[in-house]
Amino acid sequence: MKWPVVKITFLFLMLAFQSVWAESTPPLTLQSAIDEALQNSPQVQKAKSASAESTWKKVESFSTFLPTLQFEVDYLTLHKYAFLDVNLGGGTASFPQVIPSSIYELNAKLPLFDGFAGTNRFKAARAFESAEELNYKWAQFRISREVALLYYKALGSKILRQVAEQNVKTLQDHLNDVRQFRKAGASTKFDVLRVEVQVSESQSDLLNAQDNVILSQNRLAETLGREADDRTPTGDLPVLKSEISQQARVDATASRADLAALQNRVRGLEHLDRADNRFWSPKLALFGQYQQYNNRNDRFDDWANYREAYNVGLNFTWNIFDGFSTVARAHESNEQKYQADRQLRIAEIHSKQEFDLWRRKFLYFCSVYQSRVSDVAKSEESVRLAKEGRRVGARTNTDLLDAESELFRARAGQVNAQVGSIEALINLELTTGQKLYDYR
Questions:
Q1: Which pick of 141, 239, 300, 359 has the fewest CB atoms within 10 Å?
Q2: Cα 288 from Cα 310, distance rounded (Å)
Q3: What pTM was estimated for this model as a whole?
Q4: Helices (H), 63-188
C-alpha cells in the first residue's frame, strides 16, 4: 500500500514543480523582445562598433594638423670606431670618428602645408562618421521592425497550431461518430473512409503547424541574439486598417537613414578623392631636434660627460616620381567614389519599386482579411445551421463535416491574412524609413 502512495506523492510534487517553473518564466512581450534585441542583437552591436570606429578614424585624420613629438634613446652595446686620416703637413695622423654611445633625442615636427590633402581627409572622415552614425540608427530601426515581424509570425504560428489542433479534435470526433453510425447502419464505409482521409490530412497540417511554431521561435531567438529561447509570444495580432498606407511617402531618401548614410559615404569618398589627387603638391613642415649625448665614454649614466645639441629648420618635400603608386591610388579613389554613387542610385530606384510593391500587398492583405472575417462569421452560422439540421434530420453528418472544414479554413485564412498585412506594412516601413504603426 505504501508504493502507490509514494508514486502519487512524487507525481504531485512534479506537477507542483512544473507549475512553479512555468510561473517563474516570464512571458515574452513585444516590448521586451524589441528592448532585448536593441541591447543584444549582433547586428546592432556591429553597427554601434562601426560608428565608434569611424569616430576614432576622424580623430586620426585630425592628427594631420597637430605637431608630433617623439622621444628616442640609443645606446651602443658594441662598436668599433672608423678612423679619419688627416694630413698635418709633416705626416698623416689617424683620428677615430667617435660616435656617441648614448643619445637621448627629442624630435618635433609641425606640418605647415600639404596641398590641403589633410583638410580633405578630415572632411572625408567626418562624412564617414556621419554615415556610420546613420547606419547605427538604421540598424536600430530595422532590427525593431524585424523583431516585430518575427514576433507576430511566431504568434500567428501559435494561433494556427491551435486552429489545427481544434480541427484534428473535431475530425476525430466525427470519425468516432461515423464509425458508431456505421455499426448502427446509419452510415456507409464510404463515409468512414472519407473522414479518415480528412483526419490524416489534418494531422499532417498539425505537424506542419507545430514545426512552424518551433522554426518561427528559433528565428526570433536568433534575431534577439540568443541560440535558443523557450519563451512564448503573448498577446493578439493587431488589426491593421488600409488607411495607414496613406501616411507613407514615396520620397524615401529623406526618411531612410541607410540611404542618407550612402549619400554621406559618397560625399566622403569625394573628399578622399580630392585628397589623393594632391599627390603632385609639395609639402612643407617645421621641425626641431634636441639631443643629449655622451661621446666621451661608454657609460649611459655619467651625466657629467653628456653634451647637448639642437637644430630647428624647415623641411620641404616634393614627390617627383614614386613608381606611379600615388597616381594609381588617386584613380582607385575616383573609381570607389563612382561605385558608391552608383550603389546609391540603385538603392534609390529599388526603394521606389519596393514602395509600390509593399503598398499594394498591404492593401491586398487588408482586403483579404476583411473578406476572411466575413467568411468566418458565415462559416460559424453555417456550422450552427448544419448542427440544427442534423438534429432534426434535414442535414447529414457529411454536411456538418463540410461546414466545419470550411470554418477552420476561414479561421486559418484570417490569421494568414493578418500576418500578411503586418509583414507588408513592416516592409513598407523599411522601404520608406517611416514609423507608420506603433506595434507596442
A1: 239
A2: 7
A3: 0.82
A4: 117-184
What is the C-alpha separation between 278 and 113, in angstroms, rounded?
11
Q: How far apart are CA 383 and CA 405, in angstroms?
A: 9
Find the mean pLDDT for residues 410-427.
Answer: 94
270 inside domain: yes
Range list of β-strands (E), 152-306: 283-294
Buried b / exposed e along 133-168 (16+ C-beta atoms within 10 A): bbbbbbbbbbbbbbbbbbbbbbbbbbbbbebbebbb
Nearest to 351 by CA among 422, 439, 247, 434: 434
* Under 8 Å between Cβ of 130 and 274: no
Strands 92-96 and 102-113: unpaired
Structural domain boundaries enclosing 374: 27-66+115-281+352-432
In a domain, 16, yes or no: no
CATH label of the domain that carries residue 187? 1.20.1600.10
Q: With respect to residue 338, please indicate whether it lies within any of the assigned structural domains.
A: no
Query: 189-236, pLDDT tens digit by residue?
Result: 887 888 888 889 889 999 999 999 999 999 999 988 888 888 888 888
The DSSP secondary structure of 395-435, one letter per residue, reads: S-HHHHHHHHHHHHHHHHHHHHHHHHHHHHHHHHHHHHT--
Query: 288 in helix, strand or coil?
Result: strand
Flag whether 22 is in a domain: no
- Give me the half-sphere count of Cα atoms (radius 13 Å) on the Cβ side of residue 12: 6
